[in-house]
Amino acid sequence: MHPANGFLPHSLMEPFSYFNKPAVLPPQNSNSPNNNISTLSPKKQKIVELSRITDFIFVGNQVAANSGKDLQDAGITRIIRLRSQPTLAVPDCISSVTFCQIEDLPSSNILSCLAQCLEAIRAARLAHESILVHCHAGKSRSPAIVIAFLMLEHLFTLREAYSHVEKCRNGLAMNPSFKRQLGDFEFEISGRRTVRFCPFCGEFDCFCLQSQQFLPPAALPFSLVKMGPHGGRPVDLTKEGAQQWSGG
Ligand SMILES: [Zn+2]
């Protein structure tokens, strides 16, 4: 079955053979100047405005979207704007703006923007132009859309796509509701789930369960071989790790 079946209008579905085409990814090093194009100011160097995710897709914040120089330096000529309001100035170097009205709220359906964004990203690829997907901070809405794109078009798992975007863009802080929606999206398009969500905080790869020291391992709701956040050291809570975890 076509992976996009039921999720997208028929007009947006590509031939199945396309889906095996690998994404062209930049080096996976968040400190690489090729990935993080600009920073806010010397005093706020950790806040990155513009990050390269694939050969032609960038994620950024509102500052990046307003910075004609940064956009020009990165060769970006198209923008997808995920905001609550469309009324914002457009730098001269931008020839196409796609506006998707969405707020960064738990109640927002991030996938409601996907068809429109997919169309704009594919148009950029066909034209051999680079595109910026941006929201206010570039930490939640825009990375969620690019992660969905990588899953749908390049058959990344959610874990792979999230990990890749996280490595390319410092300070990702995605709305947990969007993560759960992406988890459901993964199940819809592939029939499997590559991340498990914590029943306490709704996140994945969290440390909540380790802090629940009063609970015996048997009381926990699912398998507890977990990865630490940001791809850190695996935390095994099922064997020796459980003793340490329960204070035993
Ligand atoms: Zn948690």
TrEMBL record:
Q: Keywords, A to Z? A: Hydrolase, Protein phosphatase
Know the name of this protein?
protein-tyrosine-phosphatase
The domain of life for this entry's organism is Eukaryota
**Major enzyme class:** hydrolase
What start and end residues bound the annotated signal peptide?
none
Keyword set includes Nucleotide-binding:
no
Q: Which organism is it from?
A: Paratrimastix pyriformis
Please report the stretch or stretches of sequence annotated as the Tyrosine specific protein phosphatases domain.
115-180
Pfam families, sorted = DSPc
Q: Which PROSITE patterns match?
A: TYR_PHOSPHATASE_1, TYR_PHOSPHATASE_2, TYR_PHOSPHATASE_DUAL
Q: Which family does it belong to?
A: Belongs to the protein-tyrosine phosphatase family. Non-receptor class dual specificity subfamily.
Record-linked CDD domains: DSP
Q: What EC number(s) does this enzyme carry? A: 3.1.3.48
Q: Does the keyword Hydrolase apply?
A: yes
Q: Which SUPFAM superfamilies match?
A: (Phosphotyrosine protein) phosphatases II
Q: Which InterPro entries match?
A: Dual-sp_phosphatase_cat-dom (IPR000340), Prot-tyrosine_phosphatase-like (IPR029021), Tyr_Pase_AS (IPR016130), Tyr_Pase_dom (IPR000387), TYR_PHOSPHATASE_DUAL_dom (IPR020422)
- Annotated Tyrosine-protein phosphatase domain residues: 49-191
